[in-house]
Amino acid sequence: MKKRYFPIAADAPPPLSVTVQRRVRFEEVDAIGYVWHGRYASYFEDARVALGARYGLGYMDFYRRGVIAPLKQLHVEYHRPLRFEDDFTIEARWHYSEAARLNYEFIIRDSTAAAVATGYSVQMMLDGDNDFLVVPPPFYQQFLRRWRAGELQ
User: How far apart, in whole angstroms, are the C-alpha atoms of residue 50 and residue 141?
Assistant: First the structure.
């Protein structure tokens, strides 16, 4: 990756990551055979969901605990196109933050491992009344303690 979207503090644990493999489907391409630019957000979502599932903190896990985590920011940089039937990977990296937010970085690579697109998303934690949480809820603070202790690698 050319640049980091989230600085990593010297005392922070390394990001958690997962890589998802995919193949471009016909319904994802435009009239000229390239993946439509709006699909890249859903590719990021595929990896973000897999990462949440891997660590037991997906959307519904938050929801069941009375927390919702909508997107606050989404950024995509396009480097080269994907085409119908191309194989590719999506890597998601979950960056440590003690704030009530979720920072994800993404790298989509083609079958030669060349970067196709990079980007990030930020999700904020809200309570059941849609008010921003100032500090993470207790279940997430426990998750952060386990992450910092190296129990999640």
Answer: 21
0.90 exceeded by pTM: yes
Which candidate, 35, 23, 17, places its Cα nearest to that of 89?
A: 23
Mapped onto helix, strand or coil, the DSSP state of residue 122 is: strand
Task: Write a three-state SS string for 46-108.
Answer: HHHHHHHHHCCCCHHHHHHCCCECCEEEEEEEECCCCECCCEEEEEEEEECCCCCEEEEEEEE
Over the range 122-133, which residues count as b (16 or more CB within 10 Å of their CB) and which as e?
Answer: bbbbbeeeeeeb
Q: Specify whether the CB–CB gap between 109 and 20 falls below 8 A.
A: no
| pLDDT tens column, 3-59 | 678 988 889 999 999 999 999 999 999 999 999 999 999 999 999 999 999 999 999
Rounded-to-integer distance, Cα 129 and Cα 110, Å: 42
Q: Which CATH superfamily is domain 16-148 in?
A: Hotdog Thioesterase (3.10.129.10)
Question: Are 96 and 149 contacting, i.e. CB atoms less than 8 angstroms apart?
Answer: no
Alpha-carbon distances of 129 from 49, 70, 132, rounded to whole Å:
24, 13, 9
